[in-house]
Amino acid sequence: MARVGLKRPGRRAFVFALLCWALPLLCLLATRGANGAALFFQDWGAWAKFLIAPALLTLSEKPIAFAIDECVALLFRIPLIASQSMTDARTALAKARDRTAASLPELTCLALAVGASVINVGRFLHGEAPGWAVYEGGLTLAGLWGLIFGNSLFWFLLTRLMWRHLLWWRFLGHIARCRLRLAVTHPDGHGGLGFLGFYPAGYGLFTVAVSCVFAAGIGHVMQRQTVTPGLFTSVCAAWLAVVAIYFALPLVPLARQVSRLKRDAILLSLTKGLDFERWNERKTLGKNVVEDHAEMNSDTSEVHDLKLLYRASLKTSALLLNKGSVLAALVPALVPLLLAGASFLPYAELGKIVKRLLFL
Q1: Is it the case that residue 223 has pLDDT exceeding 90?
Q2: 356 CA to centre of own chain
Q3: Helices (H), 3-123
Q4: Is the link from the previous residue into 229 a cis peptide, with omega within 30 of 0?
Q5: Is residue 121 part of a domain?
Q6: 201 has a pLDDT exceeding 70
């Protein structure tokens, strides 16, 4: 990209959208005139996959990298990683960065993208193609270009970002195996790891791009058959669940660490808290109501009131991706679906759907 002058994401996104969407449109105008161009304009999939998605997926690389880099920087800057595990953590980070720029994953993503386009060729030739892509039983020039370049580019950009997401998941898995300096009384309520739950905020453009393609598919279905508001609500809820799981999975290994911290802190505070309360009872009453003679000669120099620690342990949550932090990802995922539904469902029904989804 640097060699052809497309290193800047904005310029690259513009050129990709021009090649994927504008070029097929010009081909249709040249070969089939205004009728072919009208079919292209009416195809939601063409807008989503050839114009919106390539541009947004390209522009999303920078905010995604920024969000993840900030999380990584905080891990090492605070530092949350114990000194004896720092070498392993830095090694895991170096490997993740090398794999991000490796050639083999890029070629694998390209192969998957080409494979997806080959599958689409078969579907197009068996009657599942939009009207602008086929003519008299064969693929038009615009349809051929859309499959070879537009569809392949979309899948390449998507799988490439998904591969980087997988590397993020793997890196956090390595961090979870390190010794971490967590505190159950940390004010974030997650032992000190709460800041990791805000990384999906960098995926806003990515989520919009993928949701637009998904919404276009729903729109095609709703054009051909009637979809009830209940069914549409279920589809929206299922899609939001998929998006939430996609962003929550990388945090699962560290969530286990917080869960163990909470369990151990509760157990220790219950044990030490009982020792303190019985010591306080002996000090106040002269003896315990239920006596244990072994306690009479026990060392009480390290006995402390642990009520605050116990309450903090109960409030500690292992859900690093909570409702507040995931909202930045779920709203961009829902808006394209609502726009698709607005074309076929009454606005009053859409309002009820939004209320149900917000309640969930």
Answers
A1: no
A2: 22
A3: 9-17, 23-31, 33-42, 44-46, 53-59, 61-77, 86-100, 103-123
A4: no
A5: yes
A6: yes
- The last residue of one of the domains, among 154, 176, 198, is 176
Q: How far apart are CA 151 and CA 162, in angstroms?
A: 17
- Which among 137, 152, 176 is the end of a domain? 176
Host domain of residue 48: 1-60+103-176
Among 339, 360, 358, 345, smallest CA distance to 230 is for: 345
The answer for residues whose C-beta is within 8 angstroms of residue 121's C-beta and 6 or more apart is: 139, 147
In the chain, what is the straight-line distance between the N-terminal and C-terminal CA atoms, in Å? 43
Nearest of 41, 263, 29, 26 to residue 130 by alpha carbon: 41
Domain membership flag for residue 225: no
Give a yes or no: residue 298 inside a domain: yes
The Cα 346–Cα 342 span in angstroms is 7
Residues 6+ away with beta carbon under 8 Å from 6: 12, 15
Q: What confidence score (pLDDT) does residue 255 get?
A: 94
pTM as predicted: 0.88
Can you tell me the distance from the alpha carbon of 40 to that of 142, in angstroms, rounded to the nearest whole number? Answer: 10
Burial label for 60, CB within 10 Å (0-12, 13-18, 19+), is buried
Residues 131-149 pLDDT 10s: 888 777 778 888 888 888 9
Residue-wise pLDDT for 280-337, tens only, equals: 777 888 777 887 766 655 555 566 777 888 888 899 999 898 777 788 888 899 999 9
Q: Is residue 202 part of a domain?
A: no
Query: Tokens for 113?
Result: 């993208």
Structure tokens at 231: 């069914």
Q: Would the CA dihedral through 54, 4, 108, 100 be positive or negative?
A: negative
